[in-house]
Amino acid sequence: MQAGPAERSAWQRTAAGANLLGADGKLGVTIFEEMTSLAVKHGAINLGQGFPDEDGPAEMMEAARAAILNGANQYAPGQGIPRLREAVAVHQERFYGITLDPWREVIVSTGATEGIAAAVLALAGPGDEVLTFEPFYDSYGAMIALAGAEHVTVPLHAPSFQPHLAELEAAFTPRTRLVIVNNPHNPTGAVFGRDVLARIVELAGKHDAVILTDEVYEHLVFGEPHIPVASLPGAAARTLTISSAGKTFSFTGWKVGWVTGPEELVARVRTIKQFLTYSSGTPFQEAVAQGLDYPDEFFRGIASALEAKRDILAEGLRAAGLDVFMPLGTYFITADAAPLGFDDALDLARRLPELVGVAAIPVSVFCHPEGAERTRSLLRFAFCKKEPLLAEAAARLSRLVDLV
Ligand SMILES: Cc1ncc(COP(=O)(O)O)c(C=O)c1O
Fold first, then answer.
1. Which of 24, 89, 230, 331 could form a disulfide with 100 if both were Cys (CB 3.0 to 4.6 A apart)?
2. Domains of the chain with CATH codes
3. Mean pLDDT, the chain, as a whole number?
4. Distance from the CA of 252 to the center of ligand 1, in angstroms?
């Protein structure tokens, strides 16, 4: 007999929430691991995992090195070094006009991942419902399950991957405790419209739910400037915003993130956070504080360099015969393999490294079973790679048309 959710241990709930536990109760490996080993086996270009193949600014690496040499080698304060908290507050004011008290309304976390974990554990528990859009970044499902809460999803619809507002409204219930927004959105690359964000704020207010908004791709946008949820009327008092240095500065391995919002909510997150890692990465915090102070042109440059990469890969995918959903943010492109006759993207993803020498991730792994059905023929490709590598991937992909 299978154990019900209540009898499951925390690891079983977590593994199930992350789609790692099979129906037989056995633990699988993540799709990212599976695709990475297939890529290695077949010498394929790995566009599966989303990490850049170039380091971020040399000055930031120098700042981290200098911090180590200058003795920034012991525990940082639990809430983060003052210089970084101040830099986060200044950044929010400069780009979005959001005013924060760096002492009470900002804490530093071990990447956005720890901020998400601490916030979900702090704010949701058994009997609560947590809303996310679907597809969803895998750590949300895992953390909601670990918290013992119920995961309710609202579908995003191709081609723009915006939610239907009626479906959003219908998903709220009196038990909705937390709404997790991810904007710009991984895996689809969608950027939610102001109307969608405003509706989320309105519905969260009506149901007295907290909004947790994961904005790690805030500077990787290719059209309109990013709109933080917390900047919308009525949002600030119930919104926790999460971001990190990994995507903005191409230092995903440094794992420096931050959580900002009203003092009372940040204090709750901090209570959990201090028993997860307590603190982290003292010298990296110094370097990230420096990076956040860079002039506006630096941040514009990141987006325009990435946009050129997006266009190279999009062209290759189109030439291969896939339907491309052009992303307005992030470094991911979603493409539909159905026009080529591939209805099962999971199967195609498993064959792609051998077929053409490129690895990708099926979008269905970011979904519950119903959502997986809806996204069955979609693949996610990462374009945070050097341009010649993307051009080579595009050339390899174009061979796909001849193989079907
Ligand atoms: C939506 C989203 N949130 C959070 C993270 C993790 O951020 P960090 O590396 O800062 O923990 C990622 C990384 O892929 C992501 O895509």
1. 89
2. 5-55+298-403 (3.90.1150.10), 58-295 (3.40.640.10)
3. 95
4. 8
